[in-house]
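All the exercises in this workshop are built on plain-text protein records. Instead of coordinates, the fold is spelled out as a row of discrete tokens. Once this layout is familiar, the rest of the handout is easier to follow. The record below serves as our worked example for the rest of this section.
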Amino acid sequence: MARFDINRSGEMEVFVRVVDLGGFSAAARDFAMTPSAVSKLVTRLETRLNARLVNRSTRKLQLTPEGCRYDEHGVQVLANLDEAERAAATPDSPSGRIRVSTNVPFARHMLLPVLPEFLAQFPEVSLDLSLTDHVVDLLDDRTDVAVRAGPLKSSALMARRLGAVKMHITAAPAYLERKGMPRHPGDLADHNLLGPNYVRASGGWPFCIDGVDRVIKPVGSIQASDGEALRELALSGAGLARLADFQVRRDFAAGRLLPVLEAFAASDSEEVHAIFLGQGGHMPARVRVFLDFLAERCRVG
């Protein structure tokens, strides 16, 4: 088992400074120590390493081959330690890679359009994006942040709410001309309802009928693995789909899709959260600034 010694870096720093300044006395002045204390510290280091680092038989500081190697590596180790501490203690300069998982509609309509802004603001950060409507395990998939829609299950994970997005039942004008406009949720039995096939999908389409909450399970000729595929199917006239407001607002404005049964689904919405590991001061700076960016630029509802 490797030995744990909190004084190792301190011993290394003193030895490297002795070499850099050319003697025990100069290093002692730099550290506000006595030359005797510095000499004892180097002796303790040699004892722990079981190797002579400095020849003390000459008036001039002379390193042994082992001392030269230790000094060379010590300079690099201390430089890496300084860099690690700066990176951890300077939230204004986040760096490193963030692994992000998000559902396809949120990525296409909310996240991807603003990512260049994030990368311009934090040029030392890189992103590894995984687009899927399936729920991922953050630990198993080594994911830093996952954007999820729908109710949260009880979990040890942390969550940051991005809002609640209004959901719409919608279809293309051509489909409605062919099959007719539904006037009541009961009319959906005569329509092709396009639904998702992923596990996290809710039990059905929620409606309020005569003051009573009801859920209708979408039954149709096509199921798809992500919400954006359902949108494309709706645009093509394949049937009715339940889609998020940020997916369809431009389609509504352009007349490519039309809302259906809005009076019965006025309260239909889904919570959207950014899920992540860790909390507070234990969160890497790169993850913290990314979550802040999501909360500011990717709010829904």
About this structure: DSSP finds ten helices and 13 strands in the chain. The first strand starts at residue 54 and ends at 55. The CA atoms of residues 9 and 204 lie 60 Å apart. The first helix runs from residue 8 to 21.
